Amino acid sequence: MTKPTWREILLHGARTFPVVPWRAHHRWRTTPVTLLILIAGLVCFGFGEALIVDASVGNSPWTVLAQGLSLRIGQGIGTASLAVSALVLLLWIPLRERPGLGTILNAIIIGYALQFALPLLPHPHAATTSVAQALLGILVVGLGSTMYITTNLGPGPRDGLMTALHTRTGVRVARVRTAIEVVALAIGWSLGGTVGVATLLFALLIGRSIALWLGLLARATHTA
User: Fold this and answer.
1) Contacts 24+ apart (CB under 8 A), 85-94
2) Residue 171 lies in a domain
3) 14 located within any domain
4) How many distinct structural domains can be found in the chain?
5) Which tens digits make up the pLDDT trace of 82-119?
6) How far apart (Å, rounded) are the C-alpha atoms in residues 96 and 209?
7) Is residue 10 included in any domain, yes or no?
8) CA geometry: angle at 158 spanning 153 and 164, to 5°?
């Protein structure tokens, strides 16, 4: 991957995932440094999610999907979220995406990081502050995603769908992720899930956030 220019980073971000020095060669074996970056990325991801939830102007499209599904099947949103994750993992099979240590830690660490961070955040009251906090959350989730995915230790269910579709189609990471989020949002909304400002912002911007951080990382670690 060639070193991206600042203009490319700001306008488009990275097209694909850079090969970084801490990239693991096996999805179930890692070095202490790679494991530390994986955990830090997942904690960062959870903190970003907490910022969005605390802003109270809408949750992520996947939460909307889980909420809509829970209304249809008469089960709690937690059960519905697990069902959605299971369905997404089934889509990995034809796309030949493989799980790893990061896939397991994703399910454990992000939830606990979100739960730990929520009580520590100052709940915003002004609408502009809430939207600004949601935007910050999207930026932080993008950073966390970039950190943990580039370890090559296995993505979470939804990120794995993004990486697999990008690998199979060659379409830019940002475009693939935006398409996935918009589809999840549309299905969730049609099922009765609640959509807010942050939901729309997340669907439209999370792909660009990840691509931006990937571009910055590609430039920082490029050695040519």
Assistant:
1) 85/157, 85/158, 88/157, 88/158, 88/160, 88/161, 89/157, 89/160, 91/161, 91/164, 92/157, 92/160, 92/161, 92/164
2) yes
3) no
4) 1
5) 888 889 999 999 999 999 999 999 888 888 888 888 88
6) 25
7) no
8) 65
Contact 202, 61 (CB under 8 A): yes
Q: Is 55 helix (H, G, I), strand (E, B) or coil?
A: helix
Residue 224 has pLDDT above 70, yes or no: no
The whole domain housing 81 covers 21-221
As given in the structure block, the two tokens for residue 57 are: 């102007």
Give the pLDDT of residue 223. 42
Between CA 160 and CA 47 the distance in angstroms is 20
Q: How many CB atoms lie within 10 A of CB 181?
A: 24
Instruction: Tell me the C-alpha to C-alpha distance, in Å, between residue 127 and each of 91, 131, 134, 137, 202.
Output: 38, 6, 11, 15, 17
Assess contact for 142 and 209: CB atoms under 8 A: yes
Cβ atoms within 10 Å of 8's Cβ, excluding its own:
16
Alpha-carbon distance of 87 to 195, in angstroms, equals 22
The C-alpha atoms of residue 88 and residue 161 are separated, in whole angstroms, by 7
Q: Report how many helices (DSSP H) and strands (DSSP E) the chain contains, helices first.
A: 9, 0
